[in-house]
Amino acid sequence: MGIPIKVTQTMTPLGFDDRPIAKRVGLVILATDHTTEPDFQRMVASPKIGLYTARIPYANPTTPENLRRMQPGLTVGAGLILPDENLDAICYSCTSASVVIGDDAVEAAIKTAKPGVPVITPPLAAVRGLNAFGARRISVLTPYTVETSTPMLAYFQTKGFDIARFTCFGLEDDREMARVTQASLVAAATEAMAPDCDALFISCTALRAAIAVPQIEAATGKPVVTSNLATAWATLRLCGENQPRPEMGQLMTRPMAAW
């Protein structure tokens, strides 16, 4: 059997960093989400920025009623992300739900669990992204039904934008939205862009649209803002990361006004 080995505790003094990773970003995402985490890993995560995710209950179809049902889960979900520790930013990754629940209500629910943390919603990040281009007349593309798209039309009008064209796919399931091909997105976005608009906004965190932005911008000659591109951009700026990254689209070259 050999000589018995005992566990001993080292007497070597240990040093501790303030944090394992310098910046901490929380993501509150839908249970059905296929796209936010891969997009944020590609656009935001780095040795200096860590991502910490909580999933909250959600059931299709994507209707205003089902979207509103997520509101009670926002506080619980946010509270599960590094409990009792500060974050540098937290994003609720659902554009249509943020519109029907309301940016302020989303922020209040999340700040109940994470007071003092900047809260990012996709529609508000999109507004800031469009403002970074000075865009006033815009086109909008969504994957939703007409019923779910209509509150978003009102949202952007309320924010002072002139809507040149508003197009939707008519899909009801966010898992199906995540399967729309890149070729389809580029073709649909090109068609959705009104000739006289300043920029195009592509809504929905489920769509794999952020990675297609450079191709759409090349095809249309105009700036493109998507839900995940806008939230990633806002997150980076809140974390003090201002390095231009033109390979991800024009928005990633722009500064952001104070959140």
Task: Tell me the layout of helices and strands.
Layout: E1 23-30, H1 36-43, E2 49-56, H2 64-68, H3 71-79, E3 89-92, H4 95-101, H5 103-113, E4 119-120, H6 122-132, E5 137-142, H7 146-158, E6 162-168, H8 174-177, H9 182-192, E7 199-202, H10 213-220, E8 224-226, H11 227-238
Parallel strand pairs: 1-2, 1-3, 3-4, 5-6, 5-7, 7-8
Helix pairs in contact: 1-11, 3-5, 6-11, 9-10
What does this structure look like?
- This protein is of the alpha/beta class and 259 residues long.
- Helices cover 38% and strands 16% of the residues.
- The chain has eleven helices and eight strands.
- The chain has a four-stranded parallel sheet, sandwiched between helices.
- It is globular, with a radius of gyration of 20 Å.
- The model has no long low-confidence stretch (mean pLDDT 97).
Radius of gyration: 20 Å
Protein structure class: alpha/beta
The rounded distance between the terminal residues' Cα atoms is: 65 Å
Backbone shape: globular
H/E topology pattern: EHEHHEHHEHEHEHHEHEH
Q: Which regions contain 5 or more consecutive residues with pLDDT less than 50?
A: none
The amount of helix comes to 25-40%
Strand composition percent: 15-25%
